[in-house]
Amino acid sequence: MKKPTMLPATMSEMWATMGSTLASFMFLWAIIRQYCPYELRRFFEKYTHQLTGYFYPYIRISFHEFTGDRLKCSEAYAAVEAYLSTNSSKSAKRLKAEMGKDSSNLVLSMDEYERVTDEFHGVKVWWVSSKVASTPTRSMSYYPEQEKRLYKLTFHRKYRQTITESYLEHVVREGKEIRVRNRQRKLYTNSPGYKWPSYKQTMWSHIVFEHPATFETMAMEPEKKQEIIEDLLTFSKSKDFYKKIGKAWKRGYLLYGPPGTGKSTMIAAMANLLNYDVYDLELTAVKENTELRKLLIETTSKSIIVIEDIDCSLDLTGQRKKKAEKSSDDEIERLNKEIAKREGKEEGASSSKVTLSGLLNFIDGLWSACGGERLVVFTTNYVEKLDPALIRRGRMDKHIELSYCSFEGFKVLAKNYLDVEMHPMFEAIKRLMEKTKITPADVAENLMPKSPRDDAEKCLSSLIQALEEANEEAEKKINDEDLGENDPTIEDSVLSQVDKETEKSS
Ligand SMILES: Nc1ncnc2c1ncn2[C@@H]1O[C@H](COP(=O)(O)OP(=O)(O)OP(=O)(O)O)[C@@H](O)[C@H]1O
Ligand SMILES: [Mg+2]
């Protein structure tokens, strides 16, 4: 017969014994930690882990924020973060709030060291967000300790298969969808003030990308516009095709043309069409090739990497030119160097050591394949100055010329700026445009109403006036050139002007 009164006594005795055993063990462990040599401690730790693993029926999976020695933000971590942002906001008690897409909604996610439970097909799991201090690797040992964030997933070992085979896939899939839904597109730039590797977690700084340009608002020939749109859309849907042909999923565009013809505007329109982020790479702020590679690795998928005015960014021009191929460009360069010398700047004083081969590697080297789904866009005003190696197909797959405004282009601008599709003044504008070069930027400026009283007619006549002036100026220039060709006094006057300015400033 059972003695019911005995049970509580036995239980309490048992707890008491267990408590004191635990306390003794912890005391012993504290002594071991303090006095034992490192190897012996490792030995104890190893066997303690094995022992707890034997009795403790739970499995834990960690999702670290960075993979590959802090090289890249882990996609799994980002997916888990997004998944938990929706699923934890109902149950977590401490939440973080961030702005969501279009700055119109707040996105909540669990705060550090917060714990939430989730259920999947009747299986209960626990998620904890945590932080660990990471000791810097030997190469980075002069940098202070950094914190690494991670999520830990805990579940009973009998559900190992369900969790690893179905639940994790479900988390990543949903997380990615949520990320796309909440994503605010970003405009990144590499800030020149930081040294690599910096205390910051990433080499890019960003703001929300909010440029309103679209292909609809761009002034260019309709067929050319359609061709570019189709090219971009085909690229974005060709994941399997690129895999089949064994090519990294990326495409290079070279946009060239005079200033104010819409190169930068087109990049914004591309980003808006494809819903991509933009990485505006300031090449002159990059110290060396390794830094360039690091920047590349940190870019994410679905993005456009932009290098504007590539001819000005680096001395990439003429490196492979033969000496015999001297052109008038070389003459201009010589003049520029002379001016720089007189202004007290040393020749080639640029602090950037990025080389042409470093840049070529950036575009299509082995590292360029990481990330996938990316456009690389170069812009230049002087396409003929670029090294052919840089712009050959495969690197810059599509060359797009943006040129002076055509009548078709003007009609798009007139519709955008004035809501006018037909007007009797169009005929005169068409005639003038056929013989005068005017950039879309200049047309746009003239069509812009300058006061509330400015109507379509006022703006159109201002454009006609601008066109007539440009026409006169062009004719005058031609006449002057005929008269003063190869005038050596021009060079002298430029240099003496610089001399005067340098004297003044000193
Ligand atoms: N093709 C175009 N369609 C519509 N607007 C244009 C176009 N080209 C220029 N613009 C207008 O002119 C302004 C300047 O254009 P943008 O900055 O794109 O020129 P760019 O070719 O990048 O010049 P740069 O070579 O000097 O960088 C833009 O703000 C835009 O409003
Ligand atoms: Mg530009």
TrEMBL record:
Acidic residues bias spans: 481-490
Q: Which residues cross the membrane?
A: 12-32
**Pfam (any one):** AAA_assoc
Every AAA+ ATPase domain range: 249-406
Annotated InterPro entries: AAA+_ATPase, AAA_N_dom, At3g28540-like_C, ATPase_AAA_core, ATPase_AAA_CS, Mitochondrial_chaperone_BCS1, P-loop_NTPase
User: Has the keyword Metal-binding been applied to this entry?
Assistant: no
Coiled-coil residues are: none
Keyword Nucleotide-binding in the entry? The reply is: yes
Q: Give the catalytic activity.
A: ATP + H2O = ADP + phosphate + H(+)
Annotated region Disordered: the residues are 471-506
Can you provide one Gene Ontology molecular function annotated for this UniProt record?
ATP binding
The UniProt entry, under SMART domains, shows:
AAA (SM00382)
Instruction: Extract one GO BP annotation from the record.
Output: response to stress
Q: Which cofactor does it need?
A: Mg(2+)
Q: Which UniProt keywords apply?
A: ATP-binding, Hydrolase, Magnesium, Membrane, Nucleotide-binding, Transmembrane, Transmembrane helix
Family membership, please give it. Belongs to the AAA ATPase family. BCS1 subfamily.
Q: Which PANTHER family match?
A: BCS1 AAA-TYPE ATPASE
Q: What is this protein called?
A: AAA+ ATPase domain-containing protein
Q: What is the lineage of its organism?
A: Eukaryota, Viridiplantae, Streptophyta, Embryophyta, Tracheophyta
